[in-house]
Specification:
The complex is a heterodimer. Chain A is an alpha/beta fold. Chain A folds into 2 domains: about 1-90 and about 170-180 and about 200-300, P-loop containing nucleotide triphosphate hydrolases (Rossmann fold), CATH 3.40.50; about 90-165, no CATH class. Chain A has helices spanning about 45-50, 100, 110-115, 120-135, 150-165, 180-200, 210-215, 235-240, 245-250, 270, and strands spanning about 1-15, 15-30, 35, 60-65, 90-95, 170-175, 200-205, 220-225, 225-235, 280-285, 290-295. In chain A, a hairpin with a 2-residue loop joins strand 10 and strand 11. In chain A, helix 5 (about 150-165) runs parallel beside helix 6. The longest helix of chain A is centred in the middle third of the chain and has 18 residues, at about 180-200. By secondary structure, chain B is an alpha/beta fold. Chain B has a domain at about 1-100 and about 175-260: Rossmann fold, CATH 3.40.50.300. The radius of gyration of chain B is 20 Å and the shape is globular. The model of chain B has no long low-confidence stretch (mean pLDDT about 90). The chains are: A alpha/beta, B alpha/beta.
Chain lengths: ~300, ~280
C-alpha cells in the first residue's frame, strides 16, 4: 500500500515557485491497476515522477511524504531517499516514448545486461531474458536487434519486458501506448493486464484516453490543477462521475455511433498554472471507495477524510 | 459534381536492399478511390502504422512520385502521368499540415516568418497584402497575430503551434488540405480544438480535408468519407457513417474492435482484485 501524505511537489524557476502537485492525500492499495487522468499541466506526470523518486532540480518535494510500504532487495523499507537503488527491482517505470528510451547503439540483449545490479553471470541473465521476451510475444531474434530495427509496438514490448523483468512491486506506466496505433495498443494493454494478474503488483497508468482507463484500471484518479478531484473504483467513477470535471473528461472524446458535438476539455486553469480555482478542496467519500473533492465551504461534511 | 479526390490505379513501390538481393515494398497497391461532391468534405484515411497512409499523403503532396497511376484533385491531375499544374498552382490547390508541428517549423526562426513567406511566395502577395492575409488566417484559427509575431516554436504549446500550421496552410486559399496525423503529437486534452477547427473550416470556409489518422473515433466524428487501408491497399471505402456502423471487411472490424471504448470491456476488471 502506498500512502501519499499531503504531498506537495514544486518547481523553482528563477524566483518563481510553481506548485505542480499541491497537497495530495492518497492511499493506493496493493494488487491493482490505478489509472490517472487529467489534462496537460494537471500535475499527473509530476506526481508520477515524485512517486518514482526521480526528483531532480528544479523539482523538489516542498511538503509531505510518501510511504511506500515496500521492502527493498536488501530488506529495508523503501523511502524517497533510497528509492534510486530499487529502480527496476522493486519500482520500475515504463516511459512514454519507447523510441527514445532504449539505447540506440546497443542491441536489445545488451540493454538487459546493462541493468545495474543484474546477475554477474551474463549467460544466465541472457538465457532468462530470452525466455522472458518470448512470453511477452517477441520473437527470439529481437534480442539480437538494435532498437531501430524493431517496430514501435515491439519496442514498447521490450520496454515492458525490461520494466517487468525483476517482477517489481510497483510499476509506473506513463502513457504507455500513446504513440501506437489502435491494434498494437490493444495488444500492449492486454499484455499489461495479464502481467499484472500474474505478478499481483500495483501498476499506475497515466493516460489521457478515458477508454484506455475504462479497459485496464481497477481504480481511477482524476487530477486537475495539481490536485485530486476524484478517486474511486473505476466502475463507480464511470457509472456515476461526481465531479463536473470528471464528467467532462468522460464526455469530451468522440465515440463511434454517437454524432453529438464534442467540446474541448481544456481549461485555462490547467495550462496557465492558475491554482486559484478553489481554495482548498477536501476529498469526501460520497460512496464506498469513491472520493470527490469538495470546496472547503462545505467542510461540515467530512473534513479531512481519511484517504 | 466536382471530383474532389480521385486516384486511378495508384501504385508506389519502394526498393529496399542492395543490387543483388533487393526487395520490393508495395506501399501503395492499386489504390482507387473517388470522392465526388458539391460541398467540401473531410475524407479520412485510417489504418495502422505501415499501411501506406503516409505514402498516399506524400503522393498527393507531390513529395513522392507514384510508380504508376495518377491522382486528381478538384478536376486537376496533380500526380502521376499528365500532372499539369505548375508548382505554384499546385501549392495554391493542395496544402499540407504535418504530424509534428515542432519539426515542421525551425526552432531558429520566428513562426510568423513561415506564414509571411507562404503569403508572398505561394500566394504571390506583396508585403502589405501578406500582412493582412496572415492576420486573417490566424484569426480564422482563433489566434491573434499580435500574440504570434516574432515568437519561436518553443514559446508555443503543441496545440497552438498546430493551429499556426493550419493558418499557414490556409493562406494560399487551397481547395484541399492534406493533414497527416495532425493531432497525434498534440496533448490529447487539446486535440478536439484542432478537430473542431477542421469541421468549422469545412463548413464555413469551404475547405476540403484529407485527414490521415489511426484514431477511428475522431475520424468518425468529422469525416464524410473514410478509406480503410491495410498493407498498401484500400480494403474498404465509403461514406464514413456507413463504413463504421456496418463494416464489411474483416480488417475494418479488427480496427473497430481495438478501440478502447467505455461500453464493453475486453477483459473483466474485478473489483475483488483490490486488496
Amino acid at each position: 500500500m502506498i500512502r501519499l501524505n499531503d504531498l506537495k511537489v514544486s518547481y523553482r524557476i528563477g524566483n518563481r515557485v510553481i506548485d505542480a502537485v499541491d497537497g495530495v492525500n492518497l492511499t493506493i492499495p496493493d494488487n491493482c491497476i490505478v489509472g490517472i487522468a487529467g489534462e496537460s499541466g494537471s500535475g499527473k506526470s509530476t506526481l508520477m515522477k515524485a512517486i518514482y523518486g526521480d526528483i531532480q532540480q528544479p523539482m523538489y518535494l516542498s511538503r509531505g511524504s510518501i510511504d511506500y510500504g515496500l521492502k527493498g532487495t536488501d530488506g529495508k523499507p523503501v523511502t524517497t531517499a533510497n528509492i534510486g537503488k530499487e529502480w527496476f527491482k522493486t519500482v520500475s517505470y515504463i516511459p512514454q516514448s519507447s523510441m527514445n528510451s532504449l539505447n540506440p547503439v546497443i542491441r536489445i540483449r545488451e540493454q538487459f545486461i546493462d541493468f545495474p545490479g543484474t546477475d554477474s553471470n551474463k549467460k544466465r541473465v541472457l538465457e532468462r531474458a530470452r525466455q522472458y521476451i518470448g512470453k511477452l510475444g517477441l520473437p527470439p531474434e529481437a534480442m539480437d536487434s538494435y532498437p531501430h530495427q524493431l517496430s514501435g509496438g515491439m519496442r514498447q514490448r521490450v520496454m515492458i519486458a525490461l520494466a517487468t523483468f525483476f517482477q517489481p512491486e510497483l510499476i509506473i506506466a506513463d502513457e504507455p501506448t500513446t504513440a501506437l496505433d489502435v491494434v498494437v495498443q490493444k495488444e500492449i494493454l492486454m499484455l499489461l493486464m495479464e502481467l499484472q494478474e500474474q505478478m499481483g503488483n500495483t501498476i499506475l497508468v497515466v493516460s489521457h484516453d478515458m477508454g484506455v482507463h475504462y479497459q485496464v484500471t481497477h481504480k481511477m484518479l482524476i487530477m486537475y490543477a495539481g490536485r485530486v478531484v476524484e478517486y474511486g473504483d473505476t466502475e463507480s467513477v464511470f457509472a456515476d462521475p461526481q465531479h463536473a470535471y470528471t464528467r467532462m473528461l468522460i464526455d469530451s472524446l468522440p465515440t463511434i455511433g454517437d454524432d453529438s458535438m464534442r467540446g474541448v476539455m481544456a481549461s485555462a486553469a490547467g495550462a496557465s498554472g492558475d491554482r486559484a480555482y478553489d481554495a482548498q478542496p477536501v476529498l469526501v467519500e460520497v460512496k464506498p471507495n469513491h472520493f470527490v473533492a469538495q470546496s472547503t465551504a462545505a467542510k461540515t461534511l467530512v473534513a479531512g477524510a481519511t484517504l | 459534381m466536382t471530383v474532389i479526390l480521385k486516384t486511378e490505379g495508384l501504385n508506389k513501390v519502394y526498393r529496399l536492399g542492395g543490387f543483388a538481393q533487393s526487395r520490393q515494398i508495395h506501399a501503395l497497391n492499386d489504390v482507387n478511390i473517388t470522392v465526388e461532391s458539391d460541398k467540401p468534405v473531410v475524407i479520412a484515411i485510417v489504418g495502422e502504422s505501415g499501411s501506406g497512409k503516409t505514402t498516399l499523403a506524400k503522393t498527393l503532396l507531390r513529395l513522392e512520385t507514384p510508380t504508376s497511376g495518377r491522382a486528381i484533385v478538384y478536376d486537376k491531375v496533380v500526380a502521376g502521368s499528365g500532372a499539369t499544374p505548375s508548382r505554384k498552382d499546385f501549392l495554391g490547390l493542395v496544402q499540407p499540415i504535418f504530424q509534428n508541428p515542432f519539426e515542421a517549423f525551425s526552432r531558429y526562426r520566428p513562426v510568423d516568418a513561415y506564414l509571411n513567406e507562404t503569403a508572398r511566395r505561394v500566394a504571390g502577395m506583396d508585403n502589405d497584402q501578406a500582412e493582412v492575409a496572415v492576420a486573417e488566417a490566424l484569426t480564422s484559427v482563433g489566434l491573434n497575430y499580435g500574440d504570434i509575431r516574432g515568437k519561436y516554436t518553443g514559446q508555443f504549446s503543441g496545440g497552438e503551434l498546430q493551429r499556426i500550421s493550419v493558418a499557414r496552410a490556409l493562406i494560399p486559399q487551397p481547395k484541399l488540405i492534406v493533414a497527416d496525423e495532425p493531432v497525434s503529437m498534440i496533448d490529447a486534452s487539446r486535440r478536439m480544438i484542432i478537430i473542431n477547427l477542421f469541421k468549422k473550416l469545412r463548413d464555413e470556409a469551404g475547405r476540403s480535408f484529407l485527414y490521415i489518422t489511426h484514431d477511428l473515433a475522431t475520424a468518425y466524428y468529422i469525416s464524410d468519407f473514410v478509406a480503410v487501408m491495410n498493407k498498401g491497399q484500400v480494403v474498404e471505402f465509403g461514406p464514413a457513417r456507413q463504413v463504421m456502423s456496418d463494416p464489411q471487411h474483416a480488417y475494418t472490424r479488427l480496427l473497430l474492435d481495438s478501440i478502447p471504448t467505455i461500453r464493453h470491456r475486453w477483459r473483466p476488471r474485478a473489483a475483488a482484485a483490490l486488496g
